[in-house]
Amino acid sequence: MITSSLQTSVAVFALIILHVSTLDTFKAAVYEHAVILPNDTETPVSPDEALFLMNKNIDILEKAIKQAAEQGAQIIVTPEDALYGWKFTRETIFPYLENIPDPQVNWIPCQEPHRFGHTPVQARLSCLAKNNSIYVVANMGDKKPCNSHNTTCPSNGHYQYNTNVVYDAKGKLVARYHKYHLYREIQFDVPEKPELVTFNTTFGKFGIFTCFDILFHDPAVTLVKDSHVDTILFPTAWMNVLPFMTAIEFHSAWAMGMRVNLLAANTHNVSLKMTGSGIYAPHSPKVYHHDMETESGKILFAEVDSHPRNSSTYPPAMNWSAYATSITPFPGPKNSFRGFISRDEFNFTKLSESAGNLTVCQKELCCHLSYRMLAKEGDEVYVLGAFAGLHGRRRREYWQVCTMLKCRSTDLTTCGQPVETALTRFEMFSLSGTFGTEYVFPEVLLTKIKLAPEKFES
């Protein structure tokens, strides 16, 4: 069930005393970075040219890291692809890669920069963490030599991985994660299996994965369910897609659905609709940023519970299917119709009155809506929609979606097309569905791409 009231705002915080050696809360920072991109080329640049570009981007990240430390942050997350961008082949990415060892080697690159070969990027990131006494999360490329006689070994004799690294406040490498679910990343290889990467601090247990990984059970759900992390670190290069997949919308919903902190740092590129970073707690967003107007980066700060499960604001587990199946389906509407959101065919029914109860179903999924409008604009049309099936062009992921949304115009064929603004105000609504999974992500996106700032229960 999703219930929402957009009239009141209540925030309650509690500090739980755990141990003398631990912190009840910590200050987090995420930085949305406008990446300095390389020139398009079909031939690899020299290692020196690659390092020059990466250092230009790290120069910018350095300012953010220092600012975070000065503001008292214990950790800062920077985006995916922040050092060099995303448009590469296997050959053209190679000069940007370094050998990143397993953290078990107990290595502070700032103190031993040549221990694992030529690693200037790792050394600089390590020094930024050490010199500013702050955990630094960054994304870069890892290369691992392989036996060319092995049939799985690429022709250049190296596996290449999209990789997150974490350095602690002393500059020590404490985590390395290889992205498993690649999105049109022909320059990188898929690891043999999803990695479940965690590390402990005095301010909670952390897990980490990257961008597209968040849409899959492994590693994202498994990391939270089995490893019992408090906070997920999430570098991303996320392209926003309305109505369901804008960064701030889905990432805040994921944190709520999984009942875990999420520190999300996105790249910033307006032409590719890349924006949307935030610090999200299980019960509500702490702070977020969505900017399609400027080309500037942005740093965000928030105080976060180190162990949210011990907080008085920690939301209870919600059995969505049990709630929805307890509802007797509302009388079937006479104005149901089909329409598409992207490539997914929904069953829709129009909200014809200013208040009411509606049910719409597709296959095994039934969606129930109760609503009451405060002021309905005459030229705005809203619908309730249901979808259950294989999603998108790939047809690899099975989605179940219940949605209430505004149509682009009064023409019902526009229902499901992207819309950024709305004028109708809802006094309340309650939306639920007979989902076949316990992992449900409740999204509420308001006009002009804003998250619900007031009371929102799931």
TrEMBL record:
Q: Which residues form the CN hydrolase domain?
A: 31-306
Tell me the PROSITE patterns matching this sequence.
CN_HYDROLASE (PS50263)
Q: Which UniProt keywords apply?
A: Glycoprotein, Hydrolase, Signal
Superkingdom, taxonomy of origin:
Eukaryota
Q: Name one Pfam family in it.
A: CN_hydrolase
The record's section on InterPro entries has: Biotinidase-like_euk, Biotinidase/VNN, C-N_Hydrolase, C-N_Hydrolase_sf, Vanin_C
Name its GO BP terms in alphabetical order.
Answer: pantothenate metabolic process
Q: Which residues form the active site?
A: 80 (proton acceptor), 179 (proton donor), 211 (nucleophile)
Q: Where is the signal peptide?
A: 1-22
**One GO MF term, please?**
pantetheine hydrolase activity
- Which family, according to the similarity comment? Belongs to the carbon-nitrogen hydrolase superfamily. BTD/VNN family.
Query: Which PANTHER family does the UniProt record give?
Result: BIOTINIDASE-RELATED, PANTETHEINE HYDROLASE VNN2
Q: Per its record, how is this protein called by name?
A: Vascular non-inflammatory molecule 2 isoform X2
